[in-house]
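ok trying this again, last paste got cut off
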Amino acid sequence: MRMICIFMDMNLFDLPFDPSRNLLPYDGEVYYYGKAYDQASADQLFSYLLRDIEWKHDESIIMGKHIVTKRKVAWYGDQGFDYTYSNTTKKALLWTVQLQELKDTVEQKTNETFNSCLMNLYHSGEEGVSWHSDGEKALKRHGAIASLSFGAERIFAFKHKDTKERIDILLEHGGLLIMTGTTQSNWLHSIPKTKKITTPRISLTFRTIIA
């Protein structure tokens, strides 16, 4: 049985894989389903995403400064949803056939529904995302956000906004995780940078925009 590594305040725990276990100790809900695809299917999907998605460098405006990241993003949905974060706005492209199939699989496994997906391409471990929560007004309040990962295994870190307690989860190639309940209100999350990883990772974060 696959083991999932969780760090709580720097103390390492190895827990048996259990998709019904809430990985947060309080103030939110996070569940890890393990691999949603076998190795061959995950490899094929990773190649498709890397090759055929319309990737663009992410942008943000911080204190009036325009910043362009090495990390690339893509934004897809049921319709041309606008999504604003970091003082920039993206307009969704319509689902491809393959992305619609991925969404259907995620919905079946999580018993949730989604209408959009923000995708991230990290070329290596030297690219990551700093601490943040997905609490934009356009998102359904306390709505579920599902994260589907392909490529390099990376740490997905959580930090409580008040207590600063930290939990790190290792996301596998083809792995599926969901955040729901009050997670975004009480916890920050990030993809920490690391020089140990030299291969790319793609994440698909399915979410619900309130049109």
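PB: full thing came through this time. The radius of gyration is 16 Å.
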